[in-house]
Known about the structure:
heterodimer; A: alpha+beta; 2 domains; six-stranded mixed beta sheet; 8 helices; elongated
Amino acid sequence: xxxxxxxxxxxxxxxxxxxxxxxxxxxxxxxxxxxxxxxxxxxxxxxxxxxxxxxxxxxxxxxxxxxxxxxxxxxxxxxxxxxxxxxxxxxxxxxxxxxxxxxxxxxxxxxxxxxxxxxxxxxxxxxxxxxxxxxxxxxxxxxxxxxxxxxxxxxxxxxxxxxxxxxxxxxxxxxxxxxxxxxxxxxxxxxxxxxxxxxxxxxxxxxxxxxxxxxxxxxxxxxxxxxxxxxxxxxxxxxxxxxxxxxxxxxxxxxxxxxxxxxxxxxxxxxxxxxxxxxxxxxxxxxxxxxxxxxxxxxxxxxxxxxxxxxxxxxxxxxxxxxxxxxxxxxxxxxxxxxxxxxxxxxxxxxxxxxxxxxxx
Amino acid sequence: xxxxxxxxxxxxxxxxxxxxxxxxxxxxxxxxxxxxxxxxxxxxxxxxxxxxxxxxxxxxxxxxxxxxxxxxxxxxxxxxxxxxxxxxxxxxxxxxxxxxxxxxxxxxxxxxxxxxxxxxxxxxxxxxxxxxxxxxxxxxxxxxxxxxxxxxxxxxxxxxxxxxxxxxxxxxxxxxxxxxxxxxxxxxxxxxxxxxxxxxxxxxxxxxxxxxxxxxxxxxxxxxxxxxxxxxxxxxxxxxxxxxxxxxxxxxxxxxxxxxxxxxxxxxxxxxxxxxxxxxxxxxxxxx
Lengths: 361, 288
């Protein structure tokens, strides 16, 4: 199989719980041998989608194709799709070795004892748990449990592994290390990872491709930089948590908002009129400054957050909207500012993204 | 830690333990020692005196009736224990694992306990009109044409004692098992399914081992109660089935304190062995 062949395909998947529609006609095709991040806020249906693909739940309608085969009616234990649970779900009464060997011992295919030992040892080594084989799950740390859960799925040599917020239970330091490691392990094994997360930084950092899920629908699918640089709707921009979004009115190629009227070169179709400027493209000026790169938005300085490589400045506009400015420290020291004082925020209109009901020119 | 503070801690823990220890010595250890002591007393027809002798012990183990009662007790206990497990486990599996709604599970458990709203004796005696010659079961079977003459063995036999005890004690097996099953993380079962295990494999490799502490607790409950039984066997066997409990009741009734004490000591030792044996199967300290 080449990389461009789909590993799995969702065909109009719908699933509802009573009146609540969790998945709404999802069509999705995933490339083989890739890392796909599925980004969505809580309640967007991402866990439901994963459970439907794994076979723990049946879709109300639609078909699931996996390696060219329709698996919609196949029970979970015959699908050959790996699943890593958010709480790891290790078998508490079995040792680490036996946890990882479980699928080989109890799965559909008979495996000889010698092969079990060899494959389990190889996987334990790959995830870096050598020496812990005889421990029980309550004797190891969270990061180690995560590795056991991963090894337990990978030992079955699946072509697709579903990870349900796999890093959610780890502390920040470990999370970053596991991010790199997950990517490295996947590249070595020629498998597709579908990684569900509510964190936009995680999704952008890890995915070869990112799918954005909202209210049971995939609203955008693309590479991380496509998603980041050109969100196709104001909802995607909102989830990315990197854009200041202003409501306003778009008419005849001009957007009117709290910052005045700006002429707009291009508009993306959207249900509402929204003007989006990235945090790091928003600049701060004194109130007297005459030469602004674009529209002027008066705002009061509230606070700053030091993030190491950059500083986030928080402002409040006259209509009580919080606006964030991200100043990267490689661009020099930030200006001195006084809390509570008014400043002018501005940006280059070329770099703004405008969403609107009206498709201009 | 310095020596005085260790001492103070020690005296603190002693003070905290004291009420419990005193209570247990007064009302558990002392009476048991007393029973052991009395079992060596000399019994005459209408009197008992504290001259030490092994007569009662010799009598107990040389009498077919008493040794027979010991074996009957062990046999009935094993049968009832097996039946409560075979009937109780599937019920617990349903309540604790297969019923998804917590509310429904609670309602079902409460239903299991409803028979306890009536007194123990009524629950036992209620079996008589069910099992008797002219009882409900015989009438139904005859009406259905399945049998020509009533089944005599249903009441006043070992069978009726087994039926009665199983019905009364099965709930003590269901409760602890359902509780342990309810605590199993559903993700663990899904993880096993995802790794390719079918239902049978998941049950034997995951669900059953994880529910074992519940089985052991339930088995201890049932064992302790069945081994000490005398009322069910008395009421449903027409005095044909004699358990150690019945021996004690009869001996106490005829003021044969020494023999009653011997039976009591034998029963206590038997219980001790059974409970210790069950506790060896799982480490309950880990589960609490």
